[in-house]
Amino acid sequence: MAPSLFALTGQSNISNSKNPIATIEYASSLGYHTLLDAAALVPTSVFSLSDNPVDAMAVSFYKMFGFPTGVGALVVKKSFLAQLKRPWFAGGNVDVVQVPGTIVTRAHDLHEQFEVVVSCPHPISDHLISGKQDGTINYLTLPAVTDGLRFLSAYLPFLPLRLSSLINYLTSSLSLLRHDTTATPVVRILSRMPGRRLKSVGGQADTGSIVSLIFLSVSSIPSYLQVIHKPMLVLHIYSLLAR
Fold first, then answer.
1. In the chain, what are the domain boundaries?
2. What is the pTM of this model?
3. Secondary element (H or E) of residue 96
4. Residue 19 buriedness (CB in 10 A; 0-12 / 13-18 / 19+)
């Protein structure tokens, strides 16, 4: 088969579901290259590339520990990176560019072609960390990544248990909210809820720790549907947000 890529979201920001990693293993067995979007998964879940080998994995440091803003990484196998071809170039991707003209000499090394801006100090098998981007990011904030990873590594084993307790408390409290006049629910939870509550350190939840919900009116109609029919209210809300 022609070179193909199978991409999977590890955890949904909307449904709160964790997709089965076994899907990636199956795709790999069929000859697909595999990419895991782990931006929402790794901040609160332990994930091992040794146990779950993928060709590439995208992460967001901002989502993992809140700083630096807008900085993430592509953890990619060198063998997979060598097969990627960029049809465009920018920044440090080239050695020579003729302007005006058609002569372009791309950078020789792979990490220069893809502008690898963060190197992994402890290589994980055949993986390296790359920042595949155009232009220059705020590189002065990159040292904060090391401190953030060190901080998260210390607390990550405890996070699933803590978050499981918080999610259980939040969703239970929201479900008890009722309108005074009709006793109908105030909130409808849309995201998938955990199938079980964790009881000990080291356990892994079967869902994420995100709660998606809508607020209901007294007649059990989602509030946003009523706002659509009240343009003056929309303007009032917008003005408050703009202050």
1. 5-155, 159-242
2. 0.72
3. strand 94-97
4. middle
